Amino acid sequence: MTGNQEKRRACRNNIVLVGFMGSGKTTIGRELSKTLMMPRFDLDDLIEERERRTIPEIFAESGEAGFRKAETQVISSLVRSGAQGYVYSTGGGCVTVAENIPLLKELGLVVYLKISPETVIRRIGRDTSRPLLQTPDRESRVKQMMEEREPMYQAAADVVIEADHGRIPEIVDEICRARKEL
Ligand code: S3P
User: Do 19 and 154 meet the contact criterion of CB atoms below 8 Å apart?
Assistant: First the structure.
């Protein structure tokens, strides 16, 4: 086994939730954290702490590129720390930076919470806290972004969970089962 493979195995205790905005990464992460008694961190919160700015402020002042740079730095430092036994809820766009994909896989078991554009619109149709969705034609923006990102989520995922129905205990169960099987 190569050093990298060994490290990846060692980090498999972590669970990394990925998926589009509104897919339930935070809610499901919280439940998973309670069920498995594993502490949870939200990458968006870690970015805000590190930058001492809110996400809308980072986007406004440093653009999406500045935000992505901070996001990659946070993911890399978590991988480097070698910490295990955590649930991480990521930001919906973390898969859009190619170098993040192997890092996410190294960080832990990557679970993709897959939802439809209709679910996104239903759940976060009026949200004002997400800079990338502040556009009059939110529906087509969501569809276009989801289409572009789908192959990236698939490339990152170790496990894909259909999360449209929103039954949280069932989704948590599915993740726990998938984790045992791997
Ligand atoms: C983003 C998703 C957000 C946040 C930022 C960018 C994206 O996180 O990281 O606004 O590019 O999809 P959530 O998925 O938690 O909303």
Answer: no
Pick from 26, 27, 44 the residue to mutate for probing ligand 1's pocket: most ligand atoms within 8 Å of its CB: 44
In a domain, 3, yes or no: no
Average pLDDT over residues 129-146: 94
The count of domains in the chain is: 1
Q: Quick one: pLDDT at residue 126?
A: 84
100, 72 in Cβ contact below 8 A?
A: yes
**Any domain includes 120:** yes
Test site for ligand 1: of 18, 20, 21, 126, most ligand atoms within 8 A of the Cβ: 21
Q: Is the pLDDT of residue 72 over 90?
A: yes
Q: What is the pLDDT of residue 44?
A: 98
Which residues, in sequence order, are CB contacts of 84 under 8 Å at separation 6+? 10, 11, 13, 14
The answer to whether the pTM exceeds 0.85 is yes
- Does the residue 6 lie in any domain? no
CATH of the domain at 22: 3.40.50.300
d(CA 130, CA 56): 7
The whole-angstrom separation of Cα 74 and Cα 52 is 13
